[in-house]
Design a protein that fits this description.
Helix content: 25-40%
CATH superfamily of the domain at 3-175: Acetylglutamate kinase-like
Number of strands: 20
Radius of gyration: 23 Å
Structural class: alpha/beta
Amino acid sequence: MALIVQKFGGSSVADAESIKRVAKRIVETRRAGNDVVVAVSAMGDTTDELIDLALEVTPMPDPREMDMLLTTGERISMALLAMSIKSLGHEARSYTGSQAGMITDGQHGAARIVDVTPVRVREALDDGAIAIVAGFQGFNRDSRDITTLGRGGSDTTAVALAAALDAEVCEIFTDVDGVFTADPRIVPRARKIDRVTSEEMLELAAAGAKVLYIRAVEYARRHGVTLHVRSSFNNNVGTLVADPPEGEQMEEPIITGVAHDLSEAKITVVGVPDVPGKAAEIFTIVAKTGANIDMIVQNVSAAATGRTDISFTLPKTDGQRVLTALTAERGAVGFENLQYDDQIGKLSVVGAGMRTNAGVSAQLFTALFEAGINIEMISTSEIRISVVTRADTLAQATRVIHTAFGLDGGSDARVHGGTGR
């Protein structure tokens, strides 16, 4: 008997009918002779609605109470799903994150898992029941408070349970048929990828592909969990995220996929004295804000002034906090002024085959040039090239590059629910 962990996102349990459809799917997996553990998200847009409600009450909600509020969404969906499964004649037990043994640090809103002790989940399985676990949430032993894992936390919950329970596979159900060569909402001719390595999936997730969240992919890679991304609306085989067995060599495609991201902004620190230590000062200030820096570019200093400009990208949600911190230290650092630009987009091409194929950069830049799309910043890794363009040209750039690298399929991809989650 195999143990399978299944995760269902908000679009898969958006309403009563969806919950009943998901319950039938879970029961089918149980009837096939498998032990089943399910991690479930809040219904539809519940989490966003709760955030909006909190902001109506106060512009700065207390982080602890915010976690208490947001975890109610998953409690609703887990209980309803357990009820639906029971109505089909199978035993099901629902558990909050703390009841399921999801132990985290004390960072409200973005907690990280430090231990998983799924004693009650294992007891349910031993009793022949299906275990339903609320995703996105955990418990801090020191403060004895409920915590949340941040966006994509239900993916991370599912992967953590799969690792702790030594599951055969962790199935991530969403409203698309798997991982595609690009977002099918932007590139209709995107093709489903049958198999992708964890390294490539990490790069795609980091570059903006939202079908899987990067923390979940990192956790799966670290603990050797095989992910199967598939649709909750059909029984089609999806995408396996797994590395080949040790010693087995696979011929990698040059480019696996194209990702786009509109969630970043660019800050340019203008007129920085071009002397040793100034970049360190700037990014020490940024680090103290907790912001995550993505791309960095420093211009050649002007001979006449001995000053340079340093530009970097970061999440828009961190932008104002970083601007405030840098402005407060302007005199100490000695830069002239700051420029903020939130109308940028990041385009990335990812593929393990880049390691052994020259000319990918030239092909990328040529295709963008021929489409009249300007490049503002460039960043590379061993298997990824990312460029920053204007936000209003990003969709066109994604389609152009997808076609240029021969990734277009023969027919339009289908999106069942419309959100990709």
